[in-house]
Amino acid sequence: xxxxxxxxxxxxxxxxxxxxxxxxxxxxxxxxxxxxxxxxxxxxxxxxxxxxxxxxxxxxxxxxxxxxxxxxxxxxxxxxxxxxxxxxxxxxxxxxxxxxxxxxxxxxxxxxxxxxxxxxxxxx
Length: 124
Description:
This protein has helices at about 20-30, 70-80, 95-105, 115-120, and strands at about 5-10, 30-35, 40-45, 45, 60-65, 85-90, 110. By secondary structure, the chain is α/β, with parallel strands linked by helices.
């Protein structure tokens, strides 16, 4: 059985940030993790993709967003284009305008912390 996949949009190399904690939480539960940050580079041995379009998976099981609303509103169309089974808008990224745009694009965002979910639920 293949691993579930997740893109962490707003991934961070800073261990104090939730965009980093999410990477480790998902890895610990068996996910194949694709960090996404326009800076690119590497986080803990994982390639960081500069956009969702670069992620080498056609359809993701989960996309978890850690972006301020002003950035998230710009990325939501990329999320719709990429496709996913679950879109998680973590606390702070779930502003009304982001939610409204997500719904307009046919997405059904989950407003909750994906870290808590993955640790409670396990690997998908």
